[in-house]
Automatic annotation (TrEMBL):
Protein name: SYO1-like TPR repeats domain-containing protein
InterPro entries, per database record: ARM-like, ARM-type_fold, SYO1-like, TPR_SYO1
Composition-biased stretches (Acidic residues): 341-389
Lineage of origin: Eukaryota, Fungi, Dikarya, Ascomycota, Pezizomycotina
Species of provenance: Neurospora intermedia
Domain SYO1-like TPR repeats: 443-686
Amino acid sequence: MGKSRKNRVRPNRADPIAKPVKPPSDPELAALRESRILPVVKDLQSPDIKSRTAAAGAIANIVQDTKCRKLLLREQIVPIVLTETLTDNSIDSRAAGWEILKVLVQEEESDFCVHLYRLDILTAIEHAAKALNETLASTEPPFAKLTKGQQRIVWDMSHSLLVLLSSLALARDEILEAIVANQNVVRFLFRIVATEAVPQAAFEETLSCLMTLSEDNLPLGQAITDDQETRCYDKLLELVAAGGPRSVFVCGVLHNVFASLQWLDHSPGKDGACDAMLVPTLSKALELPPPSNKANGQADSWAQMMQVALEIVASIGTDLQTALEKGNRPQPGSASKDEEWNGFEEAEKDDDAMDVDEGSDDDKDEEDDEEEEEEEEGDDEEGDSDDAEFDEADLEKVTGMDSEDDNEDDLDDLPTLREFINKAIPQLIRLTNIVVDDDNSMAIQGHAISALNNITWTISCIDFSDGENANIWKAWAPAGKRIWQRTISPILEADSADLQLATQVTSLAWAVARSLNGTTPLSKNEHRKFMSLYQVSKAQQQTTITSDADDKNKEQQIQEDPFQGLGVKCIGVLGALARDPAPIDINREVGVFLMTLLGSAGESGVPPADIIQALNEVFDIYGDEEYTCDAEVFWKDGFFSHLEELQPKLKAVAKGINKRAFEELRIKADEALINLGRFVQYKKKHAPKVKEATQ
């Protein structure tokens, strides 16, 4: 029989995979590593629980320092915390471990959150969240009976978890989905909402986390409304009714829930739940004055609350368009708020006609161009007459006119819009006029303008022509005029050099002018301020282009989103201000401005988007021969001949746009080219009648 082997004690072998950490080459960092970093990292792995707890607390304090943080990361602090500190027997050590990770995600880039997710931090969060949930829900002993020190640790750990969850959710959609799918984590969030006497920081972080998770998230929206264990949804409604700063963050969560569940004005949810019930609470919060004592961060907390409230109002203002569409309100015009017109649908469908147009020689005479137009008309899906002439129905497609019927119901059927007009807009106007003396007030003013902008663009998409939606017009027109007189005019009058503010106000002015249909309450020569702003934007853009001599970067004149620039917005405002029944002198001045701009098509420093927008404005202003300006300005001032001369220039502009780099811009340029030909043909057909009327 063989001899049994004796157990031999061998010394622990070094990890063959682990690489020794090289000290930094910088003498200062090397000294810092030796004096502060290595000792605490060593103590963090000490067998003595007191040493580990003290080291974890020390690291939680020094990790906020940039140099210390980078050195700690070099020493593999994250794996140590995940595998050792978070599983420590000492709750103080575990709390410090979560604090370390919280600071790291706050200070590092979003890639660090992805790194943590790949290290399976969500499992550790789930374990901690489950334990904290049980502690908060416990009746033996009740949480309220715990010592203040024990409660503080629970809330400190909870706050760290909440910050981690928010940061992880923002890093990637797949992480957000994994968080929402984790029932223990979701119950933990619901439990904090339902718990009484939650510290303000933890409560706000909980709601901020829920706002992040609930945006466009149907599963979480359903989970919130269906929760019976903590009755989270009922608690949220109670907090909204109570008002105050906390109610603002609650409104953000509920707005996301209502949007995901499609609880709109015409399809409300439980007990009539929709955004209309949130607007009064948010409006009341916007009335809260800043704290008289700016110490202890009170001013910053107030400013944060105001900005969150304004962001939620802006979001509701954007989503209001969905409610209007669900209610079968006519929505003419654009797919996005800064687009005046989408062009012919046929221009997108009729590829053959497009190819013919692009392939034609620039020398072709007017007769050949008319033959091409006849071919395009013959291909239209709706079918035109044999002579394929450009008639009034085609013109309506250019101008965006729409004759859909609308139910003349009361504004009570649109409670969110009613609450906006009656309660939110007065507060927003007031906040756009606050004294800007620091970063907080500047941010509040900017958010207030953005909120007004979103609401007004939604209104501007409603068709008010021929008495359509008269009930909405009656309620909106006074509010729109107040926005112009009390927000837009004062900022224009101040003549600020802040181009960001100018861009914001110009976008708002465009929306207001569109919505008021030629009845904008302009001050004397106020329209000229937008002409001046356009020249400023053009000069600034030219400076940007010429400052870079590299030919490859000359396309900088075409922005990533070319129709969001200040120049396009100035053109849009002017076009809206010149529409019938605007005064003839303003119409003429704007018309000359637009024709001059169109005449510069193809010149260096003139963005194609500006030309396209100017042409679309001309279509809208002079598209109806019934308007006084058609005879008095368009024909008397010879605009027709300018448009005829524009066709070859516009064709060259369209062909000069790189299809791959600027696909949307090229599509719109091609649409504008086709529409210009049709518009010219229509005007030519109606010229004799118009001329006779003016004699």
